Structure formats: structure tokens, C-alpha cells
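Dear support,

I submitted the protein below through the web form. The confirmation email said the job was done, but the results page showed an empty box. After a refresh the structure appeared. I'm attaching both so you can tell me whether what I see now is the final result or a partial one.
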Amino acid sequence: MAMATKLLAGSSKRVVTRYMPNLNSAVKYVRTFCVGNGSNKPNQEEFIPDDTALELGPFGPQNKRFPLPGSIGPKFEKSPQPVVSRSKPETDVVKPFLENQPEYRHCNVLEQIVLFQEEDGFMTEDSHIPLPSDRLEYIAQECPDIMRVDFKNLFPGRDIMNGTLTLVTISQKTDNDMSSWDTDVDEEREALLAAFVQGAKEICEALESGGYWADFIDPSCGKPFLGPHTNATLFETDEAYRKLGFEIEDLGCCKVIRHHLWGTKCYVGCLFTNAPLTHPIIEIMTDP
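What the results page shows now:
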């Protein structure tokens, strides 16, 4: 499976980011872990045949860039790009202008995240720009300790304050601007909701088959989909998402989440598990 990849690697924590054409790209990979072969790595011969891709409903048709059996295609290596540090503006004239730009605010948010994780040894590596055809961003990270309290009440009966807790955000690029509301927006949100719920269920099932706990937040109600009832919620406009690199804009009548690449043309879902980042399902590995 070929994907553009960004890794933030550190001595004890890291963030894994993948860009893919759609959620089906991840689900087809994850399905290989539900066949009971007892291996941590998928059996390449057990990927879904190409002719079944048309039956995947909201996940869309097979990506034609990977025509070989097992969704395999040529992998092109990119030469490393130099890391360019963002220097702060030196004049009072330029600085106010830049501070009003979404990209500038997003960088500041990421810097704040890195600051409170710096003691754990975070370091940034080169990143790759997603392809124009990529419409899904998959980010997995070890949940920072200071954020666990934000999610504690979502999972009654589970001690998420201790042990491994991996947090996955899945952002789907939309055709419509989610800051407005009309029939087209409503229909697209319903389709993306169905895609996310089905995909998240399969990811959780694959993790549970390996002996891990996993659950995801139903975007329609903000509550865990698989866990026991709770009054706590986590909607996509929750302030907790600011700590994950998103922006939350208050439009007066409502709030909307803003993605660092796609702005308000974005639909975000969230998944939790005690599987480590090194598990191949969480990494969505590119190698068989």
C-alpha cells in the first residue's frame, strides 16, 4: 500500500501520519488481521480480490494506482527534502498579517503540543505533502498524559490514566464546506459518517481479535460506539481537538473544526486503543 507518510519520531513517543486516497485503503489492509492466521503482519495473499472492491459501499472503488493483487503498486522514493525552520517575522508590520493566517496559527498549535511533550524526547523529521488524490489523513499518537483526563469519563470502567493509550484521528476531506449547512452538506456528512463508522468498527474488530481493547467516538452523538453508556461526550468541535493540531472556529450560531490542510472542508473521527504505536494495524504499514 503506497501512501505519503510523515513521522514524528522520539525516544519514547512519536506520531504516525498517513495520507491515503480514502478510508477503504486502510480498511482493506486491516481486514487481513481478521482472518485468524495468528500473525502480526498481514498475509499478502489474503487481501480482498479486486472484483470485491465494488461491494464496499461508502468506501468507494478500488484505487487504480495499485492494480496488482493485494493492492500493490510501484513505490517511488522521494529524495529527502531539507528541513526549513520557520523564522519569526522581524517587523511589526509583517507579524500581525502572518498571525491571522490559518497556517501560522496551526504551526503555533503544533509548537505548543511539542512543548508539553518535549520532555518525552519528541523530534521532527522531514514530511511529505499528500497527493492531490489523497482525501484521508490518518494520525496515530500516544495520548499525552495531560490529555488523558479529558477522555477519562468517556470510558467508565476502564483505567485510561495508566498504561498504553493510543489516540487515532481520521480526517476525511469533504467536497462541501462544513461551516455552512444545506442539503448537499447534510447528505455528504451522512455518507462520511457511514464510512467512518464502518471503517472504525473493522479497525476495532481487528485490534480486539489481537487481544487489545479499542473503541471509537460516534460523531453523530459524541459518545463511545462500543463501550457502556456515559454522559460524557467528545464532539468534533470539542476544545480537546485544539491540542491535537486542529482549530475550532466559533461562527456565532455554531462551531466548526478546521483542518490544517483542508480548512473547514473536513470531517473528523476519533478512535482509542491500548494497542501500541508499533502494532502494524496502528502504523498502517506500507510493507507486507
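Response: this is the final, complete result; the empty box was a page-load delay. Residues 100 and 258 are 14 Å apart (CA to CA).
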